[in-house]
Amino acid sequence: MHPYISIIIPAYNEEGRIKDTLDSIVDIKEINEIVVVDDGSSDDTYKIASEIKNDKLKVFKLDKNRGKGYALNYGLRISMKNADIIGFLDGDLGKSAKEIRKLIVPILDGEADVTIAKFPPAKKKGGLGFVKGLAKQSVLEMTGVELDSTLSGQRIFKKEVLEKFDEIPFGYGVEVGMTIDILKYGYTIKEVLVNMTHNETGRDLKGFIHRGKQYYHIKKVLGQKKKEWR
Fold first, then answer.
1. Within 10 Å of residue 39's Cβ, how many Cβ atoms?
2. How many angstroms from the chain centroid is the CA of residue 133?
3. Which of 13, 112, 196, 205 has the fewest C-beta atoms lying within 10 Å of its C-beta?
4. Structural domains for the chain
């Protein structure tokens, strides 16, 4: 019997990309269910997603913007009912979302308990590498495992891995914190090179503020994990 695979897509103001994202994955035969959680968008994200007619698709809208962590936990309450394998996918990947299949195959083949998407190098200049470097070093320091894509939100999990968490942590340090926990529990993670693209954060004020928040959250999560795992 084939495992039941559910993909959760938290989406906030993605009216320009959500249709392409969903159209690109609805026909992937391994995927049984796609749970879209509109995180209180002020645009037509929910309307556009709801108009796509496909039995795999379940679309929900939160009453207000509550953040990615909340939206993922909302989706998990639905996905955990039936799924053996659960994936997280961003809503802004557009047509490149079809690359999710590359993350599913190693799980089905028993090569890993979790897969993480490794993106090609960014096309436009982003930050100075401080956040990515901190994330990589934090995971290596805590687990002895070197990973390049600890910040990537595109991930596939065996259900048993997610059952270790009462809920997905909130904040920008969520991926780093979860990666540390997963490795400390003894599960295996495989990074998979994908040709995905999404909205990149540039070298403007908004971009630097975003990365500043990321850096702060990762430092905070690292402090927490050092206490939890000592």
1. 25
2. 19
3. 205
4. 5-228 (3.90.550.10)
Average pLDDT over residues 159-167: 93
- SS3 percent helix, strand, coil of the chain, rounded to 5, is 40, 15, 45
**Which residues, in sequence order, are CB contacts of 176 under 8 Å at separation 6+?**
135, 138, 139, 150, 151, 218, 221, 222
CB 83 within 8 Å of CB 4 = yes
Report how far residue 108's alpha carbon sits from residue 102's, in angstroms, rounded to the nearest whole number.
11
DSSP 8-state symbol, 11: E
Shortest CA distance to 13 belongs to which of 57, 72, 68? 68
Residue 137 to residue 11: CA distance in whole angstroms: 29
Could you tell me the pTM of the whole model? 0.90
> Could you read off the pLDDT of 83-123 as tens digits, one per residue?
999 999 999 999 999 999 999 999 999 999 999 999 887 66
H or E element at residue 143: helix 130-143
Dump the DSSP string for 56-109: TEEEEE-SS---HHHHHHHHHHHHTTT-SEEEE--TT-GGGGGGGHHHHHHHHT
CA dihedral 188, 105, 81, 95 (to 10 degrees): 120
What confidence tens digit (pLDDT) does each residue in 25-61 have?
A: 999 999 999 999 999 999 999 999 999 999 999 999 9
Query: In which residue are the tokens 């926990």 written?
Result: 181
